[in-house]
Design a protein that fits this description.
Blueprint lengths: L17 H16 L6 E2 L8 E2 L10 E9 L3 H8 L5 H13 L5 E11 L4 H18 L2 E9 L9 E12 L14 E6 L8 H11 L6 E2 L4 E2 H5 L7 H8 L7 E6 L4 H7 L6 E6 L7 H10 L3 H5 L6 E7 L1 H13 L4 E9 L11 E4 L8 E5 L7
Parallel strand pairs: 4-5, 11-15
Antiparallel strand pairs: 1-2, 3-6, 4-6, 7-12, 7-13, 8-9, 10-12, 11-13, 14-15
Helix pairs in contact: 1-4, 3-4
Enzyme class: ligase
Keywords: ATP-binding, Cytoplasm, Ligase, Nucleotide-binding, Purine biosynthesis
Family: Belongs to the AIR synthase family.
């Protein structure tokens, strides 16, 4: 074929459909706009999201808190089930609940979706889930980007990421500097696996040859529905707690994500103390026991990968712990005391079934000792 008869290439012929992208924006506009309050300027479609932060002038020393994250391989479950309207809530939870752990209120979030082919309805479903998560968290979704990567990603493939910024008064900053021996550890229940450890979970399912549409009696629903349960977003409940009288006793918060409870709690403890966590104080939901049994996963590996049913923990003054637990329960968030903070000199030596973690994720701080046995677990 001569150069004269070779068809001209176009962006569409190369695999990028800008019109599909525009249709996706139209489908998601209402959901995104619903997260906007009067502080959001410019609406949907601007080059940059604009937020009026005049209220920060009332702060004595405002600190901006930022976080970014993704959802990981949980997306593979959403793709296999062709259900895309919940994965966005997972994204929001992973991002804003990292911000609230320092006591900050999330202000605004942006998202990024990369895909092999823009299917407007699918992209709109993803963004609707993000908007719903922002609504739950009380955070504005002020911008985003959808990028089509033909040749790099398959037509059904996509990945999502997000970032958010929040603010906290410097005097109200939570963290290890507030924690002391004698404090207690409050665990807040997870909605399920949340968005961590899915590479292990998917490997277990593959080894067992389990189908996502299989009805699992312990779950009272299909395996896929259990695995796709959205991440619980704790931000609103925690901000309500921090604004209450009981909240004055909260020293630190820890979002239980990759690495499990012990590694993440250790990040917010000072040197010289050990948090002793008692497994007997709660029973993990059935999905955790099933993953262990189906895969023959050792408990130490399970605990180092999954949240084990506690998605957020607080370190609090003992005299205000009961009030904090009651407030959270009244808001529909089950919580309970699961441990205590001890001076290192008073911490017991680890037993054979105990796990001790210190210096997690690059933080030089305190230690966490996990002891006991979950009810019904050998």
């Amino acid at each position: 074929m001569s150069a004269e008869t070779t068809p001209a290439l176009s962006y569409a012929a190369a695999g990028v459909d800008t019109e599909a992208g525009d249709r996706a924006v139209e489908l998601m506009k209402a959901a995104v706009s619903a997260t906007h309050g009067p502080e959001v300027l410019g609406g949907v479609g601007a080059f940059a999201g604009l937020l009026d932060v005049s209220a920060l002038k009332e702060y004595r020393r405002p600190l901006l808190a930022s976080s970014t994250d993704g959802v990981g391989t949980k997306i593979a479950i959403a793709q296999a089930m062709d259900v895309h309207d919940t994965i966005g809530q997972d994204l929001v939870g992973m991002v804003v609940d990292d911000i609230v752990v320092v006591g900050a209120r999330p202000l605004a979030m942006t998202d990024y979706i990369a895909c092999g082919q823009v299917v407007p309805e699918r992209i709109a479903d993803i963004v609707r889930g993000i908007a719903e998560g922002c609504r739950i968290a009380g955070c504005a979704l002020v911008g985003g980007e959808t990028a089509e990567h033909p040749g790099l990603m398959g037509p059904e493939d996509y990945d999502v990421a997000g970032a958010a910024v929040g603010v906290v008064e410097a005097d109200d900053l939570l963290g290890a500097h507030r924690v002391q021996a004698g404090d207690v550890v409050i665990g807040m229940e997870a909605s399920g696996l949340h968005s961590n450890g899915y590479s292990l979970v998917r490997a277990v399912i593959a080894r067992q040859g389990l189908a996502l549409d299989a009805e699992i009696p312990e779950f009272s629903r299909t395996l896929g529905a259990e695995l796709l349960e959205p991440t619980r977003i704790y931000t609103g409940d925690l901000l309500a707690l921090l604004a209450s009288e009981a909240g004055a006793g909260v020293r630190a918060l820890s979002h239980v994500t990759g690495g499990g409870l012990a590694a993440n709690l250790a990040r917010v403890l000072p040197q010289g103390v050990t948090a002793r966590i008692d497994r007997a104080s709660w029973a993990p939901p059935a999905v955790f026991e099933r993953v262990r049994a189906w895969g023959g996963v050792e408990l130490k590996d399970l605990e180092a990968t999954l949240n084990m049913g506690m998605g957020m923990v607080a370190v609090a003054a003992p005299e205000q712990a009961d009030a904090a637990v009651r407030l959270l329960a009244d808001r529909g968030l089950p919580a309970r005391v699961i441990g205590e903070v001890l001076a290192d000199a008073d911490a017991p030596e680890p037993g054979r079934a105990d796990v001790r973690v210190a210096g997690a994720k690059g933080v030089v701080g305190g230690a966490v000792l996990v002891t006991g046995t979950h009810d019904g677990w050998a």
